[in-house]
Amino acid sequence: MILAIVPLWLVMAVAVSANGQTSTDTAPDWTQFHRNNMQRWNPFETTICVGNVGGLQLKWKNPITGPMFTTIESSPAVVNGVVYFGSDDNRVYALDISTGSLLWRYTTGYIVGSSPAVVNGVVYVGSGDGNFYALNASTGALVWKHSGDGYSIESSPAVVNGVVYFGADDSNVYALNATTGALLWSFTTGDYVQSSPAVAGGVVYVGSNDGNVYALNATTGTKLWSVNVGGPVESGRGKWSGLYRLRHRKHVCAECQHRRPVVERSDWKHHFFACSGKRGCVCRH
Fold first, then answer.
1. Does the pTM of the predicted model rise above 0.85?
2. Is the residue at 167 inside a domain?
3. How many domains, in total, are found in the chain?
4. Chunked in runs of 10, what are the mean pLDDT values of the chain (285 residues)?
5. Other CB atoms closer than 10 Å to residue 5's CB: what's the count?
6. Under 8 Å between Cβ of 83 and 94
7. Do 113 and 128 touch, CB atoms closer than 8 A?
8. Residue 244: which CATH number?
9. Burial (Cβ within 10 Å: 0-12, 13-18, ≥19) of residue 115
10. Taking a C-beta distance cutoff of 8 angstroms, is the pair 12, 61 a contact?
11. DSSP assignment of 74-88, as one string?
12. How far apart are CA 153 and CA 131, in angstroms?
């Protein structure tokens, strides 16, 4: 089963086998942005392939009502038959995966471009209103809210070992207690942190618009190393690629943009960096 999100609509497509029967999705849940702490792929997918992807058919679509030009930049999380995502109409949504019907929605104070993480019955997501929210996954009720300095949170969270990690436009990386929302630590970079963290081996890897990729101690927030990659590292928001650990787990990869004099996305040059988990960046493409 594949989820595709486009402006104003949430659309679900399903694989149809050669005999016309709709396949049943038995794969584990997709609990957060890039599935499993930036894994970026689903090892359990056995139905959709090059041979049948052209036969995907629309199963349902749900119009997201809101202001004109409302779009959905957030990537979905899928847990226990429910699709969770944020929208530019300031809301977090939960839809039934089989029918697309609305189960609940929660209104924040601004655009929700962050992609939610769903762990232990709680939806974790940031908002452009500067707050980070924990919502009951079944009802949408507020569990707790961490109020920042009013700066947008576009970074998508990683939830590891009872801690929620994310960045914010106040230039900080945050670690919160997943149960209470209490601040465990914060680390200040030199610019917006719209990149989403990857966490492995007790280390938080995250990029900043100051042009650096940081490795931080996951327990204390102490900087282990940083590497300047020559341009903003914005990867990891709902619509961007993200930092991620390679399968052999020896390197963390990041994408950055090198700007030309005209600062428009179409004028940015994209480079991919592979960084040693202990020593920093070693190559780029």
1. no
2. no
3. 1
4. 39 39 47 57 74 88 73 88 93 95 96 93 96 98 93 93 96 98 97 90 91 94 90 59 40 43 36 50 47
5. 21
6. yes
7. yes
8. 2.40.10.480
9. buried
10. yes
11. SPPEEETTEEEEE-T
12. 7
